[in-house]
Task: inverse folding
């Protein structure tokens, strides 16, 4: 399912707008960006197996691990347009997967592990 970068970025914005307000107030130190595809380094870093697609990546220090320390650079969540497009057959599905990916990566920022996210249906 191919869309323009503008439409894709809109989906990301809609996903962020759907985050409950009590979380938004804590999102001061995280930025969400869109990239076409992950780099080889990012794929290796994510620990995904062969054949698995990387939809998003969280890079930073989770709030739960900071202990009052604020990193000098904002945390970055990257959402990858091409793998998401390849994995989706309709606009609705793409919008939904973008939302799940944004939520999943934001949850890492708030300190959730991948195992906990599986349990919450956000794996
Ligand atoms: Zn994850």
Result:
């Amino acid at each position: 399912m191919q869309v323009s970068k503008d439409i894709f970025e809109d989906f990301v914005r809609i996903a962020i707008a759907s985050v409950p307000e009590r979380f938004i107030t804590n999102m001061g130190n995280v930025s969400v960006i869109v990239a076409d595809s992950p780099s080889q380094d990012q794929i290796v870093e994510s620990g995904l197996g062969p054949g698995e697609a990387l939809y998003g990546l969280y890079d930073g220090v989770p709030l739960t691990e900071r202990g009052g320390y604020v990193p000098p650079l904002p945390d970055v969540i990257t959402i990858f347009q091409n793998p998401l497009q390849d994995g989706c057959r309709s606009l609705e599905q793409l919008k939904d997967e973008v939302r799940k990916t944004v939520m999943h990566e934001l949850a890492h920022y708030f300190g959730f592990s991948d195992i906990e996210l599986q349990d919450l249906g956000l794996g």
Summary: DSSP finds six helices and three strands in the chain.
